[in-house]
Amino acid sequence: MNRDSMKSFDACTLCLQSAINPMADLDGAIYCKQCIYQYLLDQKNLYKKMMKEYKKYKEEEKLEEQEKEKQLEATRIVAFVEREKGAIPDSSAKKQKEQINNFWLPASTPAHVKSKLKKPSSVILSPKGTPIKLKDLITLNLTPLPTLDSAKEKKSTILTKDKYMCPTCNKSLSNVSGVYCIVSTGNVFCQHCMDTVIKKDLMDPLTNTKFTEKQLLKLEAEGSSFACRSGNTLEATKVTPAPRL
Ligand SMILES: [Zn+2]
Ligand SMILES: [Zn+2]
Fold this sequence. Notes:
GO molecular function: ubiquitin protein ligase activity
Number of strands: 10
Distance between the termini: 43 Å
CATH superfamily of the largest domain: Zinc/RING finger domain, C3HC4 (zinc finger)
Protein name: Nitric oxide synthase-interacting protein zinc-finger domain-containing protein
Bound molecules: zinc ion
Keywords: Coiled coil, Nucleus
Subcellular location: Nucleus
Pfam family, one: zf-NOSIP
């Protein structure tokens, strides 16, 4: 696989740069803390704006209903007047009725043209379209590569992408097949260590704390695993966040 064409595994889903203060959602998407906070705030404001429009629409709809009711009432009055006049509808009564109908016509016509406005959903969706909540975001504890400075000096495009390593095997996380995070601790490991050691003990080797298999989250690098996302989100959606103390 051509690593150069792939974005770094820690790329922020929103700004596409290497994430600063990286956080992950329950889908394994990575964000800068600031980017995702701003995103959630924007979505919240958008919802508020849409809700305001919706309320206005509902009020207008109510007014239109009242006008329709008035129109009906007017028709009823005309009918009543006609009946009172002696049951034979003469031409003047007919004319009066038409006038009333015509009077109400412009008000009722746009109501039929106007499209129905749906009530906006209060559920905030992630950029990838799955529900996302601030309290579910996981702060990632990534282990920096000790050789970062020397790698920068070499000016290699591949090496400068490598910022973090797996804390158990010390391999750069940009060169492993998969990156996993333990939801309860936020610690990040390579797939190999996860499969061969950590998953077997269900013990975070950095904190020596137990975790459940449901608290394992595969981190999805932006752009590198998008193609196969459609069928593999089951694992991520099953994840339950650790109870906050
Ligand atoms: Zn960002
Ligand atoms: Zn490892």
